[in-house]
Design a protein that fits this description.
This protein is 36% helix and 21% strand. The chain is an alpha/beta fold and 256 residues long. It contains 10 helices and 11 strands. The model has no long low-confidence stretch (mean pLDDT 94). Helix 4 links the parallel strand 3 and strand 4. The termini are far apart. The chain is elongated. Its EC number is 2.1.1.208.
Length: 256
């Protein structure tokens, strides 16, 4: 295992770029996973990391030690805890990172269950939403150019492995995608039909908008139908990730 002790080391500089820069992730086609469980999800999906990076202070962690031992054929770097903390995407470092190639999963030509996301900018929200989509069996998630980078380490962490099973297409022209979808497109709005009154058994694409402003009016107008989630409590709206989970699993309920 190679040890790096200087932040001027080229490998350390590249790691920092991958963690901090969406442009660098797109350019290299790589990203960074944080923590044992996310790395194990990657392995379970048949992907092999290009590199493992471990904090010297985490070598006595049994899970991390076992993972390092099982992946001896993968390049491994060790950093002092202070340097590791500088590139950790979380405030409390987990002790291990992995560099991987961004997977390119097959997108069905005519998906029957899809998700369109417009300008979701919070990494935690986006990751949680993708996790729900993967759990519900969504076949593709289309993201507008205004969404957070789907391969940001914090999105990956919140996604908890969703990225390895759910095809994700970024920087999409959502208007064109809606126009070309072969089923019903449903726009989440504050005013619309109650979700539970809509037959969701056919091909469906749910459209979820920005956390604060919702969907743009042009997308709302392009949708087959507008819907709302009935809320008997004295709250105006739901978190985007929570709203999406309700929609997706209502479709699961209707088609089980």
């Amino acid at each position: 295992m190679k040890s790096i002790i200087s932040r001027d080391n080229p490998s350390f500089k590249q790691l920092r770029k991958l963690v901090e820069s969406a442009r660098e992730r797109r350019k290299s086609g790589q990203t960074v996973l944080d923590g044992v469980h996310l790395i194990e999800s990657c392995l379970a999906a048949g992907m092999m990391p290009r590199m493992l990076v471990v904090s010297a202070g985490a070598l006595d962690n049994a899970e991390i030690a076992a993972l390092l031992d099982s992946l001896r054929g993968v390049q491994q770097l060790m950093l002092p805890p202070s340097l590791f903390a500088e590139i950790s995407p979380v405030e409390t470092p987990t002790g291990i990172l992995a560099v991987i190639d961004v997977p390119r999963l097959h997108v069905p030509a005519r998906p029957g269950f899809a998700l369109l996301l417009q300008d979701l900018q919070d990494p935690g929200n986006l990751g949680s939403l993708l996790r729900s989509a993967a759990a519900a069996g969504v076949q593709v998630a289309w993201l507008s150019p205004g969404c957070a980078d789907a391969w940001h380490p914090r999105v990956l962490r919140a996604g908890m492995g969703a990225h390895f099973v759910l095809p994700i297409v970024e920087r999409v022209d959502l208007a064109a995608t809606v126009a070309g979808f072969h089923g019903m497109t449903l726009a989440a709005c504050l005013q619309g039909e109650p979700l539970y009154d809509i037959d969701l058994k056919g091909p469906v694409a749910f459209m979820i908008g920005n956390e604060g402003t919702g969907l743009g009016q042009s997308l709302v107008d392009a949708a087959s139908r507008r819907f709302t989630i009935p809320m008997p409590g004295a709250v105006e709206s739901l978190n985007a990730a929570a709203a999406a989970a309700i929609c997706l699993f209502e479709r699961v309920r209707q088609t089980r």
